[in-house]
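Support reply, case 0932

Customer input (verbatim):
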Amino acid sequence: MTQMMSSAQPTAQPSIARPSISGDLSRMDLDALMRSCAAESRLFYSHQDYDPRFAYELFRRALVERNEDAWEHLYQHYFQLVDHWVRRTGAFTVSGETSDFFVSAAFTRFWRAIPAERFSSFPNLATLLNYLRRCANCVVIDSARAQSYADLLPEECVNWNTQKLSHADEEATERVSRTEFWQLVDGLLLSESERVIVRCSFLLGMKPSDIFAQRSDIFADVAEVYALKRAILVRLRRSPDLQGLY
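Our regenerated output:
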C-alpha cells in the first residue's frame, strides 16, 4: 500500500463548472475521476451543492478493487482533512508523535478495517468519512493509552505477540481490553487523590508540578504528588490481575 505524504485542501472558489456525468462511474478514467473529486470538494468547501458520488467511487476502487493508484489518489486527496482531525484530538498534544505519523496510521487502520466484503456496509461518502475520522481519533488515543500501559506495567508483563487481532474483531476487542484495564486500575487506587494523579499523569500527560499547580487544593506540595505517583506505580506493577490481563 503506497502512501502519499502531502496534499492541499481545496480552496473556495466563487463558481466551479460541474463535471458532466455519463454512464457508469466505474468505467470512468481514474484521472478524470480524481479531477471530478477535486472539483466537487471545492464546491463542498465553498458551501455549494456538491455530488459525493465521485469520491465514493474513488473509495470503492481503493477498497473493493484494492487499486493501488486509486489508494494513492485517495490518500493525497484526504491527507489534509485527516491531518486536521488528528490535530484536533485532545491526546495529540501529549502523544510525542508528528501528525504525519498519525495520518499514516489512520489510513492504515482504515485500509485494514474495510476489506472488499465489508464495503457494502458503508452506503455513502458520509459513512466512509465518519469511519475514517474515527480511525484518526483512535490511533491518537490508542497511542497515548499504549504509553500509559507502558508506564503502568513492566514491559515483560505485556505479551505483545498475542496482541495481533483480525480486522473483524480488532476494534471491539481493543475497546473491551481498554475498559477492563482502566477498571482494574481504578479498583487498585485508594483515594480520589490517587485517581487525580493517574488521570492527569497517564491520560493527560501532565507533570507532577503541573498537577500540583492545578490541584493544590488536595496536595500539600509537589513532593506529595511524586511520592503518591511512585507508590501507585509500585502497587499497579505488582498487581497479579493487571499482569494476568496481558
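We compared this against your earlier run and they match. Two observations from our side: Residues 2-17, 153-176 have pLDDT under 50 and may be disordered. The longest helix spans residues 125-152. Please reopen the case if you see a mismatch on your end.
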